[in-house]
Amino acid sequence: MTRPPFSAASLADLDLDAAPIRPEWVLEGRPVARCRHWSDSSDGTTSAMVWDCTAGTFRWYFGGDEIVHIIEGEVVVSGDGAPARTLRPGDAALFRAGTWATWHVPHYVRKHAICRDSLPSAITFPLKATRKVFGLARRVRETVAARIGLTAQQTIPLALMLVVGV
């Protein structure tokens, strides 16, 4: 079965399901949270969802990176060593994997969240190293191109000839 080339959703119209906050994380009030997962990446490491919550204060643990975009309402977020920040409609924030944040919802908040699972360092280190090598190769190619009066695109055949040994 093939997947469609894209997914789309009307974030304001999604029906949300109960998604209770762990009772031991609640610091104040009785916040009621709901969410709806609407899409995920081809490799399964990233998902998109809409989440909302009523008034209350609670701690939240981010097991993976999460980028949020506030759709409605507001929330005051704070974390270890970070000053409190009020997020309102149109605001976005990144919560890093392995961190805790305190969320204070004065009345109500609705967010769109992009959640990415953290990959083991045995996978991420080679990826980072490969990106650095390719970045260095690109810069060398651009430098050589500039010195011999070619565009970087024109040097690709030359680079391939060097690699293949022609």
Automatic annotation (TrEMBL):
InterPro entries: RmlC-like_jellyroll (IPR014710), RmlC_Cupin_sf (IPR011051), UGlyAH_Cupin_dom (IPR008579). Residues 42-112 form the (S)-ureidoglycine aminohydrolase cupin domain. Pfam families: Cupin_3 (PF05899). This is (S)-ureidoglycine aminohydrolase cupin domain-containing protein. It comes from Phreatobacter cathodiphilus. It comes from the Bacteria. Gene3D superfamilies: Jelly Rolls. CDD domains: cupin_TM1112-like (cd02227).
